[in-house]
Amino acid sequence: MPELKVLGLFMVTALAEIIGCYLPYLWLREGKSIWLLLPAAISLAVFAWLLSLHPTAAGRVYAAYGGVYICMAILWLWTVEGIRPSIWDLLGSAVALLGMAIIMFAPRSV
Fold first, then answer.
1. Is 25 in contact with 17 (CB distance < 8 Å)?
2. Residues 41, 43, 49, 52: is their CA dihedral positive or negative?
3. Domain residues of the chain, as ranges?
4. How far is 77 from 92, CA to CA, in rounded Å?
5. Tell me: the pLDDT tens digits for 37-85?
6. Rounded CA separation 21/42 (Å)
7. Is the per-residue pLDDT at 1 higher than 70?
8. CA distance 110 to 98
C-alpha cells in the first residue's frame, strides 16, 4: 500500500475510534443522551473493520496505528475540545508519527 494511502486509512480509523469513545464519554461525564451509545457502537465497529483493511500482520498494524491515533487525538483536543496543544503535545505527536513510519514503512524481507 502506498504510504499516503496507509496514513489516510489510519487517520480515518483513528477518527472512528475517537468518535466511538467520545460519545460514551459525553453520556457518562456530561449527562448527554444515552442514545449516543448507538452511533458510538457503530463507530467502533467501523473502526475494527478499517483496521482489518491493512495488508500486513495485525500486530504491526496495531502498533503503527497507535502513532497516528496519538496525533489524531491531539488534533481532536484542538478542534473539538478547543484546547490548543502545547509544544510538548506536538513534539510527542511527531515522535509517535515517526515511530509509525518506521514500523510500517521500513524495508523487510518477510
1. no
2. negative
3. 3-105
4. 14
5. 999 999 999 999 999 998 788 888 889 899 999 999 999 999 999 999 9
6. 11
7. no
8. 22
